[in-house]
Amino acid sequence: MKESDQIKDLTWDFDQSWDSIIKPAARLSLNTLDFSDLWDEDDSGEDEVLLTSPPSQHLPLAPPPPPLPPPLASPLPSSSKGAAMKSHTLKLHWRELQNLAPLPRMTRFGKQTIWAGLEPVQLDTNRLEYLFESKATSTSFTVVSGRQKQSSVSVLGMKRSNIITIALSSLPPPRLLPPAIYSMDSSVLDREDVQRLQALVPTEEELCLINEAKAQNPHSPLAQAELCLLTLGAIPHLSTRLQLWTFALDYDSLEKEIAEPLFHLKLAMEQLAASQTFRCILATVLAIGNFLNGCKARGFELSYLGKLSQVRDTHTRQPLLHHVCVLLLQLYPQSSDLYSDITAVTKAGKCDYAQVQTNFAQLEAKCKASWEQLKVLEKEEEKRKGGKGEKRKGKDDVELFAPEGSLRHRLPKILKENEERLKVLRAVHRRVINRHAADVQHPPDCRSLPP
Questions:
Q1: 328 Cβ neighbours under 8 A, 6+ residues apart
Q2: 233 φ, ψ to 5°?
Q3: What pLDDT is recorded for position 328?
Q4: N or C, fewer C-beta in 10 Å, the chain?
Q5: What is the pLDDT averaged over residues 301-326?
């Protein structure tokens, strides 16, 4: 093609209108970005409006002025006895949609916005109020008047009262404790909170003293510690519930304390059996010992390897370990670094396997006791279910039955799974200990392994 023809073609292309050049794309794809799921209906004249309308019409509107500060709270509470002080919670600083007008065309959500089709949600407002309580805005007011402040009833000793008061500073409000304990709700009470509650379980004597003092002073409020014990004392089998809850939360860690040392011991035996350097060390030490002792022993307890640095020669005062290393370098130059070959032995040497045995026995006892404790709770709840139809529950009574999906509701399944896991752990414990006893040819003791 001649140069004049190319110029003619270019001139013809540039003379065309922009609208005649633009054609619908066959596939909406930009390099590796795939936009093919965009609908044809998504093409609208909005972009043209944006291009033709003045720029000032598309600038974001100025934000509304900040709301007026709330009125100052009155220094005195309301004189009405029935009025309760409204609790303060954290606020979500979002911009609320004032109207939800129908959409101008059909979209993936239909002709209404996504907000129009949302289902209502039932919330536990008491829990939300506790979880998102705004502590910075909570202010305590002291009423100053000529009338003397009414004293609270306190019957506990100073030490016991202080312990309870300190524990309450880290616990949720007492009114949230019973429902959380019944359902074993970890979102309200964590593991540390359950441990604190175990120290606050009231005795029968304490409950009797509190009830007697309350009967003698019906118009006087109970002190904080006494009110807490009275609230906890109303929960049947409180100690049993807390023990079951603790066991369900702690089983994984209790199992880990037993399984990890056993795994280190098993792996240590495998590494020792596969290490050629360790065999060379045993052969060298055995030969030196047979020569010095004038005997032909076929082996020795492995615990003696830790004493090689304590025996010294009579001339240079070098330890026997030094001479063993020199002989190893001369006789077995191809030997590797021992500690790199037996890393599990170092970990196993730090474990107390007598304590592992004790922990395993305690885990078996706790697992057995958990079933007995669960039976007690099941009987108590069946008894209360039977009496629920005879006597209607009061308005302020706490729901005593755990909801579906709660930890209390899943306890039978959890304990059954723990029982199956305990069977596996029992077999692992027995086989690892027996293998260790057979490999080293003496009663199993991790201290016999080399350090």
A1: 280, 281, 284, 335
A2: -65, -20
A3: 87
A4: N
A5: 87
Q: Measure the CA–CA gap between 362 and 247, rounded to whole angstroms.
A: 12
The residues, ordered by sequence, that sit 6+ positions from 257 with a Cβ below 8 Å of its Cβ are 356, 359
Please give the residue that has the higher pLDDT: either 349 or 29: 349
Instruction: Say what the alpha-carbon torsion angle 62, 63, 64, 65 is, to the nearest 10 degrees.
Output: -100
% of the chain residues with pLDDT over 90: 14
Output the pLDDT for position 269: 87
Name residues whose C-beta falls within 8 Å of residue 411's C-beta, 6 or more positions apart in sequence: 184, 244, 248, 374
- The more confidently predicted of residues 93 and 212 is 212
Cα separation, 238 vs 163, in Å, equals 19
For the residues 230-249, what does the mean pLDDT come to?
A: 91
Whole-angstrom distance, CA of residue 225 vs CA of residue 175: 14
pLDDT of residue 349: 86
Residue pair 177/232 in contact by the 8 Å Cβ criterion: yes
Burial 15-35 (b: 16+ CB within 10 A, else e): eeeeeeeeeeeeeeeeeeeee
**Cα 196 from Cα 198, distance rounded (Å):** 5
Give the C-alpha separation, 444 to 437, whole Å. 5
| Nearest residue to 245 via CA among 176, 200, 196, 191 | 191
Question: Any residues with CB less than 8 A from the CB of 380 and at least 6 apart, and which?
Answer: 236, 237
Look at the alpha carbons of 53, 59, 60, 64 in this order and tell me if their dihedral is positive or negative. negative
Has this prediction a pTM greater than 0.85? Answer: no
Say how many C-beta atoms besides its own lie within 10 A of residue 318's C-beta.
11
Tell me the backbone φ, ψ of residue 297, rounded to 5 degrees: -65, 145
pLDDT in tens, 36-79: 555 555 555 544 444 444 444 444 444 555 555 554 444 444 43
* CA 383 to mean position of chain CA atoms: 34
Q: What is the pLDDT of residue 28?
A: 58
